[in-house]
């Protein structure tokens, strides 16, 4: 957000001038070079200020309607994508808090990605200004849309998108490093391991057993796990299961295995854990955005997922999910063969 950025700059300036003062007193008694040092330092500071302010053009903003009734990982997709689009268009991102659900969404997001929320200007007036240019952008959940239609409205002060979900890495991947920095700090993750090679397996059944989505299947999950062991040859492998079906998760691997950990963290802490600890991730329900974000955040970026093209996922069948837009190209897609083996696709 503009304001926060400004505060940050002020802090930088003050810190910098304090440092400079120290340098100044240290160097005055040496020789007459102090004035040269001083102007160099000042130029550096001014340059920094200019660069940060130039991220967005003056009086250009972008905001979107948000899918407030969806879940945490959907919110992450929406806000990270809007941030990415804002950066590409040089428009400062805003959130219009239209009702209580928007407040809840912001609260939830603050736990996982406080740095992302700081980038947005939060507008509490409960109404989108009448002067906003409404554009229906990204109507299919998981198909990347070219920004052309937004660029055409370059002269609008505020662009308000009435689309939703924005589930494509293409909206923000060029800002990947910054996005990862926005994730909350490391914390105590209870009984989950912090050493060994941590293989994080995401399980989604619950609402995914609706016949619309492809939910976790045991045969794929176990075969894929073995495939990962053969491929990555991890030292001291630890399995961390994150999911929405405790009983099922407990039944997946032998009960007595000392290297299997079933996460009891909150969804936001699972995501934070992934950033600092997951070396390898396995997405077993391919359209799960939660499995997706665990993987995108994950520490070592070795990602394996069930190839959605061999499933009956409704969004994929309807053309609402384009695999090339949804899954980053460096992730590995796998299929279970008829004989029960795993093949990379
Ligand atoms: C935006 O405004 C500028 C300056 O008035 C003008 O040159 C440009 O054609 C306008 N762009 C569009 C897409 O209308
Ligand atoms: C753990 O479970 C496996 C499979 O159920 C079994 O083969 C093995 O003997 C068990 N190990 C111990 C120490 O109980
Ligand atoms: C894997 O399990 C699913 C669900 O139980 C079943 O429909 C499918 O045929 C199995 N696939 C193989 C290759 O065994």
TrEMBL record:
Keywords: Glycosyltransferase, Signal, Transferase. GO terms for molecular function: galactoside 2-alpha-L-fucosyltransferase activity. GO terms for biological process: carbohydrate metabolic process. InterPro entries: Alpha-1-2_FucT, Glyco_trans_11. Residues 1-16 form the signal peptide. The keyword Signal applies. GO terms for cellular component: membrane. This is L-Fucosyltransferase. It comes from Caenorhabditis angaria.
């Amino acid at each position: 957000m503009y304001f926060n950025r400004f505060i940050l700059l002020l802090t930088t300036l003050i810190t910098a001038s304090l440092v400079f003062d120290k340098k100044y007193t240290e160097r005055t008694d040496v020789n007459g070079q102090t004035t040269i040092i001083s102007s160099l330092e000042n130029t550096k500071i001014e340059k920094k200020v200019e660069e940060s302010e130039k991220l967005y053009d003056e009086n250009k903003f972008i905001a979107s309607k948000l899918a407030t009734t969806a879940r945490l990982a959907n919110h992450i997709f929406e806000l990270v994508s809007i941030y990415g689009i804002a950066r590409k268009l040089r428009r400062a991102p805003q959130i219009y808090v239209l009702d209580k659900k928007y407040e809840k969404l912001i609260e939830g997001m603050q736990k996982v990605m406080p740095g992302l929320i700081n980038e947005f200007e939060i507008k509490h007036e409960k109404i989108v200004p009448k002067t906003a240019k409404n554009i229906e952008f990204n109507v299919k959940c998981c198909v990347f849309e070219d920004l052309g239609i937004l660029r055409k409205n370059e002269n609008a002060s505020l662009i308000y998108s009435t689309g939703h979900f924005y589930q494509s890495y293409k909206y923000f991947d060029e800002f990947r490093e910054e996005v990862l920095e926005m994730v909350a700090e490391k914390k105590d993750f209870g009984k989950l391991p912090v050493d060994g090679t941590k293989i994080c397996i995401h399980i989604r059944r619950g609402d995914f057993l609706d016949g619309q989505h492809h939910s976790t299947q045991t045969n794929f999950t176990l075969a894929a796990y073995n495939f990962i062991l053969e491929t990555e040859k991890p030292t001291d492998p630890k399995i961390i299961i994150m999911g929405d079906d405790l009983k099922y998760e407990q039944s997946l691997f032998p009960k007595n295995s000392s290297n299997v950990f079933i996460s009891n963290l909150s969804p936001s802490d699972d995501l934070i854990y992934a950033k600092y600890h997951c070396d390898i991730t396995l997405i077993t329900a391919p359209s799960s955005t939660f499995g997706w974000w665990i993987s995108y955040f994950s520490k070592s970026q070795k990602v394996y997922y069930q190839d959605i093209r061999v499933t009956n996922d409704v969004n994929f069948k309807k053309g609402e999910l384009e695999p090339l837009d949804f899954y980053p190209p460096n992730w590995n897609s796998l299929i279970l063969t008829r004989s029960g083996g795993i093949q990379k696709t």
